[in-house]
């Protein structure tokens, strides 16, 4: 006697299709509830005060450390690309126009950028042995008979970039303090970069020139024939956020810089760490920039 079964055997193909449809539906729901983590992309900017390759090499470890710290903070990947401007003016323009999200500038470039975009903000200032100051140098040739700043009257002088804090504004301010204006020099010129200044003086193309102490020491190690004539103070570099940068990202960047302890990264930029900073820290630079207006007469 045959009995009709209440349950029919399911079709394997139909069952497989059903499972695939269910999985597709589950995936769609999962994507909606738990969206895939999007990579946060930031653009860092600066300009060349020395060779572009040197600039990239020394900043890369810091940026890699920031990527790691920020990725942990946000719980999603953070990548930082770099734009190296060919000169100071281009670097300032990139920040002011929002082409980069944050930047590392010299003090004078920060002052000029702040004048163009009042809403840019200092994230942190670099520290040298825990302080916010470092040094610039006026150098002469090893065998030069120049011993004091007043001895530069009637001599030739090499400046760096026309917007350089050490290479122009502070150097001119120091010369003015010594009673020397531009028309009292035999001639002067702007060579664009600190390393070019030191090399030109060593090659006796100029009698003297202004450059940052770290570049002076680097050139000395390469046996460039220069010696220190005069040393002066400068304020350390600020790291700056563009106007309108997301407040959450700005806060995270500030904390990441202030807490950065990676010895490899700090060694690369020859700094001991970062300190909190404010616009008022650069008032001394504003005064020097104003004073330098007297240099050309």
Keywords:
single chain; 297 residues; alpha/beta; D-Maltodextrin-Binding Protein, domain 2; 2 domains; five-stranded mixed β-sheet; elongated; disordered N terminus
Descriptive report:
There is one protein chain. Strand 6, helix 5 and strand 7 (187-190) form a beta-alpha-beta unit. By secondary structure, the protein is an alpha/beta fold. A 6-stranded mixed beta sheet has the order 2-1-3-10-4-11. The radius of gyration is 28 Å and the shape is elongated. It has 2 domains: 40-131 and 236-284, D-Maltodextrin-Binding Protein, domain 2; 133-235, 3-Layer(aba) Sandwich (D-Maltodextrin-Binding Protein, domain 2), CATH 3.40.190. Residues 1-9 and 22-36 have low confidence and may be disordered. 41% of the residues lie in helices and 22% in strands.
N-end to C-end Cα span? 121 Å
Overall average pLDDT: 89
CATH H-level homologous superfamily name of the largest domain: Periplasmic binding protein-like II
Output the number of helix runs: 10
From the helix content, strand content and strand pairing, which structural class follows? alpha/beta
Strand order of the largest sheet: 2-1-3-10-4-11
- Low-confidence segments, given as residue ranges, are 1-9, 22-36
Order of helices and strands: HEHEHEHEEEHEHEHEEHHEH
Strand content: 15-25%
The helicity comes to 40-55%
Largest sheet: 6 strands, mixed
User: What is the β-strand count?
Assistant: 11
């Amino acid at each position: 006697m045959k009995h009709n079964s209440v349950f029919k055997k399911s079709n394997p193909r139909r069952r497989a299709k059903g499972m695939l449809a269910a999985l597709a539906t589950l995936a769609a729901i999962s994507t909606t509830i738990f969206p895939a983590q999007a990579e946060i992309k930031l653009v860092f900017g600066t300009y060349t005060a020395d060779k572009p390759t040197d600039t990239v090499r020394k900043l890369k470890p810091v940026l890699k450390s920031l990527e790691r710290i920020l990725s942990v903070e946000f719980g999603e990947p953070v990548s930082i690309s770099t734009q190296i401007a060919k000169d100071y003016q281009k670097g300032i323009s990139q920040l002011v126009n929002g082409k980069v999200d944050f930047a590392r500038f010299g003090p004078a470039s920060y002052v000029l950028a702040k004048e163009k975009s009042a809403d840019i903000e200092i994230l942190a200032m670099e520290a040298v042995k825990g302080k916010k100051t470092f040094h610039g140098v006026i150098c002469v040739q090893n065998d030069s008979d120049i011993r004091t700043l007043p001895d530069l009257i009637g001599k030739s002088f090499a400046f760096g970039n026309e917007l350089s804090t050490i290479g122009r504004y502070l150097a001119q301010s120091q010369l003015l303090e010594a009673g020397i204006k531009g028309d009292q020099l035999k001639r002067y010129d702007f060579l664009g970069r600190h390393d070019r200044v030191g090399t030109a003086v060593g090659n006796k193309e100029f009698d003297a020139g202004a450059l940052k102490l770290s570049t002076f020491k680097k050139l000395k190690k390469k046996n460039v024939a220069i010696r220190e004539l005069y040393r002066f103070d400068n304020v350390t570099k600020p790291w700056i956020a563009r106007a309108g940068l997301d407040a959450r990202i700005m806060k995270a960047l500030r904390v990441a810089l202030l807490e950065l302890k990676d010895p490899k990264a700090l060694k690369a930029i020859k700094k001991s760490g970062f300190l909190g900073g404010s616009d008022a820290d650069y008032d001394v630079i504003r005064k020097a920039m104003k004073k330098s207006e007297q240099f050309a007469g």
